[in-house]
Design goal:
homodimer, alpha/beta, 8-stranded mixed sheet, 9 helices, globular
Chain lengths: 291, 291
């Protein structure tokens, strides 16, 4: 779940790069300081919800595939001291930001940074005990192929953890057709870019299809109302509404809406963060084993 | 969350009765043995999810408002031995079934049964320590008025527990437009009948609006995939798909669809219960205090 910049390529972050070190042009999330900060805030708000249950023993060889700007990396490191972490991303720019973030928040943390496409990472078979893949598959044209490529890197008996959202789980009070339309437009833009913002519901068949076994998927549901002002601010307003808002220009440029109609939708959607409003969203977290 | 019989009044179970003992004609859920059994199975499947956290001390005076055929009543009694339970329903027929169910499953259980409209139950102010209201508000034209009327029966400091579904939370893999349409038609029929199948998201403002305080609402999410065959059978197939299927004739009679289109939607929806399919639904459970 990331916000795109208002460019047509924004929602297609994993180009079919020919080389291991893929060009940055396809992955345009999180390059502005504002966007990087927003992703960090989102990760902080959701850390307890999403990272609960992920515990790697010290000394484990862990690969975070698609670490982006490191928003989840700091939580992985904090929750799992002593792991031998490799963090890979297709974007050198994101990777640099991730390195800065970790250096700032966890000085002394030892991370091996790798710039490359997760479809063809140059590590030997079975190099890792655990894989962590968070908010990555949603952007890929062929997530089964990506998971299969990553599975090669996992030792037999090693685990993969996958976390994704599903924008079809977003519903809110008060309801509004204009608000629903802007959410649908975000989904449509991501689909047009080759991704799937409704991927959470597919984790079970995707992991099974990629050859993993013992696939266990669980919902991680966020619900925010007036009794939870921190979540209203941190999730409804600064995560979800902000993500929708960020595709405004792109949605207009794609001819999906007008600026006026999009703004009406945003205004309606923001009511979910006002007194009496409520907001619901479900993430899915999957753990599976490499046979 | 109940299934309606295929009649136009099916989704308007709480008529504006003039007398305390309301006529049965408006509450047509759960009168067939098949339907009563289905509601019982649904309740059994969901009991752990929905009843977790509801613990009343022995001796507590508890009112279950809208007990229907007693599907939840047996779980309330099992989880809370020693409570002084009053179970009320607007339908004498449902009440008789509830009495039979409790007598069969919990012989010796002491329940005070009351036939009457929950808007005007004839108990003195402050008669109860706790109220339990499950799958009832979704059928009411004015749920705030109902909650306010029930609040009168609660002693100061007493609690109300409300559980409702929200069909807007239903999403599934594989996706299908025909499947989504039949779900939407179920929502539409319930709305046409004066109810709201999307009420879960509204519990916070409804309870606040009825004068309760310390309102805490939490999602209780059901997610079923191939790793959980019991839930696929008990929830996806026998609860949700069965509920949609039960409005087939009504949807056709209302002119919302044709039998053929409805059946296509059902066929698509059933794929969520087949290998590789997944299904998601969120219930909302609220607890609030009478000031």
């Amino acid at each position: 779940m990331t916000t795109s910049t208002p460019q047509s390529a924004a929602l297609r972050p994993e180009p079919a790069a020919e080389a291991d070190a893929a060009p940055d042009t396809g992955y345009v999330h999180g390059y502005s300081p504002t966007e990087a900060r927003r992703l960090g805030e989102q990760a902080d708000t959701l850390a307890a919800l999403l990272h609960a249950g992920t515990a790697y023993p010290a000394g484990s060889r862990v690969l975070e595939a698609g670490c982006g700007v490191g928003a989840q990396t700091v939580h992985l490191l904090t929750a799992n001291p002593g792991v031998l972490l490799t963090a890979a991303d297709v974007s050198a720019d994101s990777l640099a930001r991730a390195r800065d973030r970790v250096a700032e928040q966890l000085p002394g943390a030892d991370v091996r940074w790798h710039h490359g496409d997760l479809h063809r990472l140059p590590f030997p078979d079975g190099s890792f005990d655990h894989l962590f893949v968070c908010f990555v598959l949603e952007h890929l044209a062929d997530p089964v192929a990506a998971l299969a490529a990553l599975r090669r890197l996992l030792r037999p008996g090693g685990t993969v953890t996958v976390i994704e959202g599903d924008h079809g789980s977003a519903f809110f009070h008060p309801r509004g057709e204009a608000a629903q339309r802007v959410v649908d437009q975000l989904v449509r833009l991501q689909a047009d870019g080759g991704g799937d913002a409704l991927i959470g519901r597919r984790l079970y068949p995707l992991l099974t299809g990629a050859g993993f076994r013992d696939v266990v998927v669980g919902p991680r549901t966020v619900y925010a109302d007036g009794a939870r002002p921190t979540l209203v601010e941190g999730f409804t307003r600064r995560t979800f509404v902000a993500m929708v808002e960020a595709v405004r220009a792109e949605a207009v440029a794609a001819g999906l809406t007008t600026a006026e109609a999009f703004d009406r939708g945003l205004t309606e959607l923001r009511r979910a963060a006002e007194p009496g409003g409520t907001f619901h969203y479900t993430f899915f977290k999957a753990v599976a084993v490499n046979p």
